[in-house]
Amino acid sequence: MPRPRVFSGIQPTADSFHIGNYLGALRQWVALQETHDTVYCVVDLHAITLPQQPAELRRRTRVAAAQLFAMGLEPDVSTVFVQSHVLEHTELEWVLACITGFGEANRMTQFKDKSAKSGSDAASVGLFTYPILQAADILLYDADQVPVGEDQRQHLELTRDLAQRFNHRFGQTFVVPGPYILAEVAKIADLQDPSMKMSKSASSPQGIIDVLEDPGSVRRKIMRAVTDLDGEVRADEAAKPGVTNLLRIYSALSGESIASLEQRYAGSGYGSFKKELAEVVVDALAPVRERTEKLLANEAELDSLLAAGAARARTLASGTMARVRDRVGFLPPA
């Protein structure tokens, strides 16, 4: 029996993924290789919904891909590729856009949130139609499941609606994907403002730990992380959000339960807790950083891995688009 297929993508909009990305999604992408047919994409088309410097986008796309391989994605197991290398993504987006209502697209909360920062007049049409391209990404690969957090649930619902609408109008064409709910372990907050999710767009530099960050900087950020005044290492989301966040990171990286950590650090205060957490983080990220640097040192080999992934992705995507073109009524090329 074939394995269920999952699809997911991540933007190359920073010089490094952060530990929230790693624990929240990417480490679980690696684990899914054991149970699923896995298709993963560096979504550079999504990245340009906001202004990008061309040379920087190229560099960051390679850095993103290198980190994915360094974290454990196996090029012979997972299909790992760059979105713009498979032209069917934009072709299918146009077809889906033509069956998407304007009001339906306008209800997407992420567009409202992002456009609010600069005003809707300054927001691009690409940002507005971002969820439709995301739907095309997923439906191209007949994905059975999509790893999602709470912030992406609405976009997956739109994808499901569009798949069902197309199937109803034109006949069975798309698999209607369901969610693969990511483990709650990984809801990592800003180190300086634990009421906020760790995020490149919202957090201050001191609130983020980057996967590729220098170990000395990692240690300093953890030692300066916001806690509280009572000195008790105890999880309490409401009363002690900073400490709870640090416990969550410690537990996720060490495999030790939060209850066990609470017991071990009972009565010891925050100093030794933070110091030992810093070493856990540094030790966990060191091999990823080293493998990433090695991959980036040989761009030709990295590009070859991505080219092979794109070739496999195109094989899947071209089959889907052949069905779509036929169903819609496009004249086949001579």
In short:
By secondary structure, the chain is mainly α. It contains 13 helices and five strands.
Number of strands: 5
Report mean pLDDT, rounded to a whole number: 92
Our Rg estimate from Cα atoms comes to 21 Å
First-last Cα distance: 38 Å
Shape: globular
Strand residue content: 5-15%
Q: Which parts are unreliable, with pLDDT below 50 for 5 consecutive residues or more?
A: none
Tally the helices: what do you get?
A: 13
**Helix/sheet category:** mainly alpha
Q: Can you summarize the main beta sheet?
A: 3 strands, parallel
Order of helices and strands: EHEHHEHHHHEHEHHHHH
The side-by-side strand order for the widest beta sheet comes to 1-2-3
Helix content: 40-55%
Can you characterise this structure?
There is one protein chain. By secondary structure, the chain is mainly alpha-helical. Helix content is 54%, strand content 7%. It is built from 13 helices and 5 strands. The protein has helices spanning 19-32, 44-47, 54-71, 88-97, 102-106, 109-118, 125-139, 153-170, 215-223, 241-254, 258-264, 270-296, 299-328, and strands spanning 5-10, 37-42, 79-82, 145-148, 178-181. The strands form 2 sheets. Strands 1-2-3 form a 3-stranded parallel sheet. Strands 4-5 form a two-stranded parallel ribbon. Helix 7 (125-139) crosses helix 8 (153-170) and helix 10 packs across helix 12. The longest helix is centred in the C-terminal third of the chain and has 30 residues, at 299-328.
